[in-house]
Amino acid sequence: MTDTRETTLKRIWLHSYPKGMPSEIALDDLGSIGAFFERSVAQFPDRSAFISGATGRTLSYLELDRLSSRFAGHLQSLGLKPGTRIGLMMPNVLQYPICQIGALRAGCVVVNINPMYTPRELEHQLRDAGAEAVVILENFAHILSKVISRTPVKHVLVTGAADLMPLHMQWIAKALMKAKGLIPPYQLPGHEKLKAVLNNANGPRLKPVDVKPGDLAFLQYTGGTTGVSKGAMLTHLNVLANSRQAHTWTEPFFDLSQAQIAITALPMYHIFAMSVAINILGLGGTNVLVADPRNTKAFVKVLAKYRFAMLPAVNTLFNNLLNEPSFAKVDFSALRVSIGGGTAVQRSVAERWQQLTKSPLCEGYGLTECSPNVSVNPLDRPEYSGTIGLPLPSTEVSLRNEEGAEVALGERGELCVRGPQVMQGYWMRPEETAAVMTHDGFLRTGDVATMDEQGFLRIVDRIKDLVLVSGFNVYPNEIEEVVAMHPGVNEVAAIGRPDVASGEAIHLCIVRKDPALSKDDVIRHCKLSLTGYKVPRHVHFMDELPKSPVGKILRRQLREQFAESASADVKA
Fold it and tell me: Are residues 37 and 47 in contact, defined by beta-carbon separation less than 8 angstroms?
């Protein structure tokens, strides 16, 4: 990596690194994710790799090795060559890691797919990726049936929620699917049963594949919150470099002589959960899979079963747990750190979390295009800082203005990132790749940030979420942070809407905790902490806020809803 210490804020963040933390990681010994996993199997064969939180069914490292190898060998028998794209469309079931690791061991490229996609969204992703095979949970197969004829998919493997469960557990898995309101299993014509493949001990053997670090591992599609969903090209080196960065940052704080347990409640098709799972495998740890964390009572029951050391989540999920009375009875004695990402962690949530669990809620920052981790707070700082921490080892950041020039320390600028974890570009979209990459190799994140004298970064908002009120810049995150501290507020989103008097005006969308909370209460509260032009004039109380599958509040969707409502009023 080119040394640009004099041009990227002089890497002042290194002075704030925990004692003994290296500034760089080694890259020359990184191979493939398959080889990475096989080393863990050799070292920890009898440890639990994954556990189904709902049923307790466990996959040891050795069993995961055996089943993923069978799946990889079957892919090869179908004639799927290295580089072939394979879609995985499942919730957090044990089949997911089996198929993900198996596909990578066969040299294929994994395309993670949200199982709740509509036919239109699914068709777009399969066609855009050029996926030739799909593994899908049977309860979602009817969606695939509507579009498969218009996609490149040639091979479909269908699995059931109870496929890996012993007989006495199968009713639990089936009941869970029914409780979620999913349709009965749909028999897709011409499909194969994944269960038969995994149970076939005499099936095709995996033929070793020479997978190089620079080969593609994932086409990881962005959530589409800022435009058309597009695939970030992540290589084996991108993902493993980011894993090593995370290991380097966290290893001093965990007792690796024992298997550390991470609660994987975010969906594995999302980059955040996917990276955590891979990181934990590298440490010989255990991932407890939670299929539906939005069922807070059931989620707490899972948490009560395990002495978990790590809980990665988003602000919404932390908030939901804190508002569930039974959560206070969970044993937090093994919890070392909770990692907040995806969107800003609110101070009120972080402080309540630390008070209850007696462990820090450590905020970090990442994005799909960075595999995903860019920065994180030091794990030895117990207090909530409101920052996204320091750039990880071997990560360079630069804050730049609209002209591409670096801003002075403390000033707002677009956060730009360079490092071994940065994607190769967007799949089949050279123009969009060029639009986000600078001439000197930095990725433009689209997020506005500041850096303080210690090198800590703070996200102040997304560029497109900026609201211009009478010529003044207003950042929704700041407004939301203040409003969330009101005891009568459960959730809040701030958006900008056209306004005759001021060009744009702030609109607050609130889910109440206290049914008696009024607009005047909210505005009075805002006036205590915000200067005049930042105080919202419009407050909308809602039953719920639109969210992405990982719980990120979608401001864009709120703006669209209001725009549609305004258009309907005009026509009326």
Answer: no
Residues facing 469 on adjacent strands: 472
- Which range of residues forms the domain containing residue 555? 466-571
The CA distance from 267 to 565, in Å, is 32
| CA dihedral of 120, 121, 122, 124, whole degrees rounded to 10 | 90
What single-letter amino acid sits at 304? A
Q: Is residue 123 part of a domain?
A: yes
3-state secondary structure of 356: helix
φ, ψ for residue 175, nearest 5 deg:
-65, -35
Q: Regarding beta strands 310-313 and 337-340, do their DSSP bridges make them parallel or antiparallel, or are they unpaired?
A: parallel
Q: What CATH number should be reported for the domain holding residue 115? A: 3.40.50.12780
Residues in a beta bridge with 311: 338
Angle between helices 61-77 and 33-43 (to 10 degrees): 150
| Nearby residues of 268 by Cβ (< 8 Å), 6 or more positions away | 90, 92, 96, 97, 100, 112, 274, 277, 289
- Residue 441 and residue 514 in one domain: no
pTM score above 0.90: no
Q: Of 167, 14, 197, 232, nearest to 99 (Cα)?
A: 197
Residue 206: strand, helix, or coil:
coil
CATH number at residue 527: 3.30.300.30
Provide block-wise average pLDDT over 10 residues at a time, the chain (572 residues): 51 95 96 97 98 94 98 98 98 97 98 90 95 96 94 96 78 62 70 96 96 98 68 98 96 86 94 94 96 93 96 91 97 94 84 93 93 94 87 97 93 97 97 94 95 95 80 84 95 92 91 97 93 92 92 90 70 46
The DSSP letter of residue 213 is: T
Cα distance between residue 223 and residue 243, in whole Å: 22
How far apart, in whole angstroms, are the C-alpha atoms of residue 412 and residue 406?
Answer: 10
Angle at the Cα of 362 from the Cα atoms of 310 and 413, rounded to 5 degrees: 140
DSSP 110: E
Which string of DSSP letters, residue by residue, matches 402-464?
TTSPBPPTTS-EEEEEESTTS-S-BTT-HHHHHHHB-TTS-EEEEEEEEE-TT--EEEEEEGG
SS3 of 138-186: HHHHHHHHCCHHHCCCCEEEEECCCCCCCHHHHHHHHHHHHHCCCCCCC
Assigned token pair, 504: 């744009």
Residues 290 and 405 in one domain: yes
- The sign one gets for the Cα dihedral 415, 418, 419, 422 is positive
Both structure tokens of 325: 């009375």
Decide if 473 contacts 443 (C-beta within 8 A): no
Residues 531 and 397 in one domain: no
Do 254 and 292 sit in the same domain of this protein? yes
Could you give the CA distance from residue 449 to residue 466 in angstroms, rounded to a whole number? 12
- Cα separation of 319 and 349, whole Å? 6
Q: Which of 65, 46, 130, 51 is nearest to 93 (CA)?
A: 51
Q: Residue 45 and residue 61: Cα distance in Å, rounded?
A: 5
Both tokens of residue 186? 């749909």
